[in-house]
Prior knowledge:
By secondary structure, this protein is an alpha/beta fold. The protein is about 25% helix and about 30% strand.
Amino acid sequence: MKVYFLGTGTSQGIPVIGSNHPVCKSTDFKDKRLRVAVWIHWDNFSFVIDCGPDFRQQMLASNCQCVDAILFTHEHSDHTAGIDDIRPFNFKQGDIPVYAHERVISNLIKRFEYVFETVNKYPGAPSIQTNEVIAGQSFIIGDKTVTPVNVMHGNLQVFGYRIDDFAYLTDVKTIDEGEISKLKNLKVLVINALREEAHNTHFNLKEALDFITLVQPEKAYLTHISHVMGFHEEVQKKLPPNVFLAYDNLEIEL
Ligand SMILES: [Zn+2]
């Protein structure tokens, strides 16, 4: 299984529009971060977790040829705003199965009404087939079992996903003990770390590192990173030996 980091930035991305912050001005390619998403693929199955506003650019950069499914973590725009750009995959493959919490599906129906139109739907509009993800219920994609992990993003419920010994959790601020028990014996954990300063709805760096100590994966990658976290190279030096800042277009193999 390969995991390709399509984007590793927080909601505004890096550089931030109009910002003169030194990290936004950095020429290091690792300091350029699109909105968070990952592309996961094995043998002949390929899917993405989240489909944010940079989806088109991410599909071009990664040379992804096929999207067999989209798993959504939650409905915020930095995770969903790219839906219109799935159309090239629709033209090649037909409807794309989407997996999300019932609340997220209702939100998509409201915000992307034209996608769900049943009468006189515009022929070029995106087409998806919805599948409800239920807390505590695993489901199958391709030939693998996906275990949803329930986390809280402030007051908003968010799903993380575990597949084999890999787990992807983003936009976490708190997580119940029962859910943490689903994260035993991981080879790789991806977890959000916004910046050093505390934040109401996202783990800061210390909270993410404490969480990694608690879960004890072999390796951990940090994502959903703000420009105020600092330069990639300098932040990386401060991290424990098994913890890495993810960066855009990084691919890892499990
Ligand atoms: Zn987010």
